[in-house]
Amino acid sequence: xxxxxxxxxxxxxxxxxxxxxxxxxxxxxxxxxxxxxxxxxxxxxxxxxxxxxxxxxxxxxxxxxxxxxxxxxxxxxxxxxxxxxxxxxxxxxxxxxxxxxxxxxxxxxxxxxxxxxxxxxxxxxxxxxxxxxxxxxxxxxxxxxxxxxxxxxxxxxxxxxxxxxxxxxxxxxxxxxxxxxxxxxxxxxxxxxxxxxxxxxxxxxxxxxxxxxxxxxxxxxxxxxxxxxxxxxxxxxxxxxxxxxxxxxxxxxxxxxxxxxxxxxxxxxxxxxxxxxxxxxxxxxxxxxxxxxxxxxxxxxxxxxxx
Length: 307
Fold this sequence. Notes:
The chain folds into two domains: 209 residues, Rhomboid-like fold, CATH 1.20.1540; 40 residues, no CATH class. A hairpin with a 7-residue loop joins strand 1 and strand 2. The protein is globular. Helix 7 packs across helix 9 and helix 10 runs antiparallel to helix 11. It is built from 15 helices and two strands. 30% of the residues are buried.
């Protein structure tokens, strides 16, 4: 059994604890249910059709107007989780599942959400810049439809995954499988084709999100994790409101060594199932590239002895 086979044993399952892909699907689904429930209430209340748009939807979606944005800055975050149409949600979740699952398999459980958020934020910035800088668009910025949905964030995930493994193939039953770069190219070409239209802001936003995914993965390859501050912030909040984590403020050396009965730096040459499980968990959370040379050597030795 190869080293890669071991990492595949611990592919994050959809219902696994702390699974980033699960949380993104849950958040998108919850916001969809909430918006449609309110929409149903408005429909049966027999109020004018535009009331729902102005009183509810506008407070979730990203407007093209900077003036409107100044009254609801939180939409820079909420728009990327907001879907109203059923098919819009289904297509977003299919793209998210397809690329997000592969990304987690290759990098662990801590990169998907930062790439998603970075792509969404960068997409929002370029949506606003495009619609407010160019006169052909800025003249109608007040009546332009707002941006909603996860497309810019998903483009970041798709491009990031493709940058990491361009030859990764899905649907192997179709002539040996379809490479990721083909799907991503189609995804990008559709957005590129919309630039010379009134929807130019959307196309540019999606492509900018994809560029952010590319930059994120390239920086990660250089050892710069642009999303680490997000993970640290989430862990800080989790530790702050979790009384069970009593070791949060203890020095790192106390957590690693002095609380153990074993002598520090003592090497255990024997192959143990517990150590193998710990290494596989680390691959699941952080990716294979984060293993130390000793851990890689242990994993290689375990594969030969079929532990």
